[in-house]
Amino acid sequence: MPHDRDPLPAFHDDLAAAFAELWRLLADGVVQGRSAFHAPSLATVDAQGRPRIRTVVLRAADAAAGTLRVHCDRRSDKAAEVAAHAAVALHAYDRAAKIQLRIEGRAGLHADDALTDAAWEGSRAMSRVCYGIAPGPGTGLDSGGAYTVPDEAAALTIGRPNFSAVVIQAEALDFLYLDRRGHRRAGWRREGAGWIGGWRVP
Length: 202
Ligand SMILES: Cc1cc2nc3c(=O)[nH]c(=O)nc-3n(C[C@H](O)[C@H](O)[C@H](O)COP(=O)(O)O)c2cc1C
What we know:
- With 202 residues, the protein is of the alpha+beta class.
- The chain has one domain: Pnp Oxidase, Chain A, CATH 2.30.110.10.
- Helix content is 22%, strand content 36%.
- It is built from five helices and nine strands; from the N terminus they run H-E-E-E-E-H-E-E-H-H-H-E-E-E.
- It has helices spanning 15-31, 77-84, 114-121, 125-128, 152-158; strands at residues 41-45, 51-55, 58-62, 67-73, 87-94, 99-110, 163-177, 184-191, 194-200.
- Strands 1, 2, 3, 4, 5, 6, 7, 8 and 9 form a nine-stranded antiparallel sheet that branches.
- The site of flavin mononucleotide (FMN) has 15 residues, from strand 2, strand 4 and helix 2.
């Protein structure tokens, strides 16, 4: 946990370093289960224009492309919401880093393409099990346990038709670092192939 006597981080007054730190934290979140950025909240918009939000696991963060990837069941509400309305947001606050990241962008739902095949191949059996669940996510049940999950051998293939990858093209980034010696907030907006950014009042 950072302390007041610790030197200020390099990104405290260096916008380019803050941008690099944002993408470093996201990439770290993909591989580090203890990072808050491993399981951010994904917000979507439903058919009535209402916000919907839930936790998802961050599966990829590509700073060069400005994209993030998460996985979901094609039968889920979020999949339908993304398919109908591409606007999404991701959010997480990591207490250890004292950094909140907010990402807004446009999401694409991938199901029957090479990208999704590769994502499925890269998933572990314990992750694939969820996609073989029946009936589909969100279906009402007579009792809490009245659903089935495949065993791990069957899970290797059975869930593939229900599996989808959501690729988010980031369009706006917001970085907030909390420090009693001076909070720092920065934001960037996508401009063509690059980003336009600046410091903001926290
Ligand atoms: C720690 C954690 C990680 C989760 N990861 C995912 C995920 O990667 N993909 C997913 O579809 N749901 C994930 N879920 C479940 C969702 O939060 C949500 O409950 C479920 O997908 C139904 O959402 P929907 O009805 O809005 O589609 C996760 C939940 C938790 C608590």
